[in-house]
Write a structure and sequence with these properties.
2 domains, nine-stranded mixed β-sheet, two-stranded antiparallel ribbon, about 45% helix
């Protein structure tokens, strides 16, 4: 078996159908199996897979166990020489599986490779990032409070505006997004599986860092093309779910720092994060007095979010708690 394609599903029935259809339409010249791991969806995702794609190996979870753990479930059962982790909100635009397989076969030290990701409008989507540092994480946290027009001025090394996404590239200082990722299965023996402490997000950065530290290679292969409907699964989140998502996001970043950067940097990071959220809450409260009545509900939500994030930044001993909300 050449490739085991693994898709994690959570309430994205229509997107999952489109993803699976694109795999069967575009993939050829390789032997492959498909796993769909459903994290307790409340829609008809499982029924759709069983009815329309009966050959898919469906794993039903009774709870949302997170992205890393769900992937590991399928990786352990997979028979392929390579695993192809694919988000349910992706669409293969060409025979990406075969393109990446052939590349990996020619590069035996490559543990990971990823395709060119496109936005729905076919513009290039950023899929490479440098490894997080305390400085870079605090800068990004600070920029979140600024309007998009100011954030766009802060182009980084792998931003599509400054990096050429049309050429093959070995990534020596960063990682590839887990939205579409081919991994040599033999590398798991040395690197280990995805860290299941991460519920969603940061597991790809953490795995990429482990790959690099052990001397394996990571490559960007733009001949393989995949459209990623970035964030499509988050469009229907309620206010409370959005707050829960942000809390989990902060805890997972905090865990990443503690695991990979040591206690001194971890302490510095926590102090700086606390200062950022104090400033954010004060700014939100002051700004609320200047908003018109029609924007008052949004203002209240932002103050509520800022307050909850400040409280989360102060908590102790919850870096490993990512229970489903």
């Amino acid at each position: 078996m050449d490739i085991s394609i693994i898709i994690i599903s959570y309430n994205t029935c229509a997107l999952l159908r489109e993803c699976l259809s694109s795999i069967y339409e575009k993939t050829g010249g390789v032997t492959y199996e498909i796993f769909v791991v459903d994290n307790a969806s409340s829609d008809e995702s499982c029924e759709m897979v069983e009815k329309e794609f009966s050959e898919v190996r469906l794993i039903r979870n009774s709870e949302n166990c997170g992205f890393a753990k769900a992937n590991n479930q399928a990786i352990k059962r997979s028979r392929g020489k390579y695993v192809f982790l694919l988000n349910s909100d992706t669409i293969l635009e060409n025979n990406a599986s075969k393109v990446m397989l052939e590349f990996m076969e020619k590069h035996p030290r490559a543990a990971v490779c990823g395709p060119l990701l496109l936005n729905p409008d076919k513009t290039v989507q950023r899929s490479i990032d440098t490894y997080p540092t305390v400085t870079s994480m605090i800068i990004r946290l600070s920029l979140e409070a600024l309007p998009n027009r100011y954030r766009r001025l802060m182009h980084e090394k792998y931003h599509p505006a400054v990096f050429c996404y049309s050429q093959r590239y070995q990534i020596t200082d960063g990682w590839l997004t887990g939205a579409a990722l081919m991994i040599r299965k033999a590398a798991f023996t040395e690197v280990g599986l995805l860290d299941e402490v991460y519920h969603f997000m940061m597991e790809d950065a953490d795995f990429g860092l482990a790959v690099s530290r052990l001397g394996w290679e990571t490559w960007f292969v733009p001949e393989a093309v995949v459209t990623h409907l970035l964030g499509a699964s988050r469009n229907s989140l309620s206010d409370q779910q959005e707050i829960d998502f942000k809390i989990r996001f902060l805890r997972q970043h905090r865990y990443y720092v503690r695991k990979n950067m040591g206690l001194v940097r971890y302490g510095i990071y926590r102090t700086l994060v606390f200062c950022c959220y104090v400033n954010n809450l004060i700014r939100r409260v002051i700004a609320s007095a200047m908003y018109p009545l029609e924007k008052r509900s949004l203002t209240i939500f932002k103050i509520r979010l800022a307050r909850q994030m400040l409280l989360t930044s102060m908590e102790v001993g919850k870096d490993r708690i990512f229970e489903d909300q």
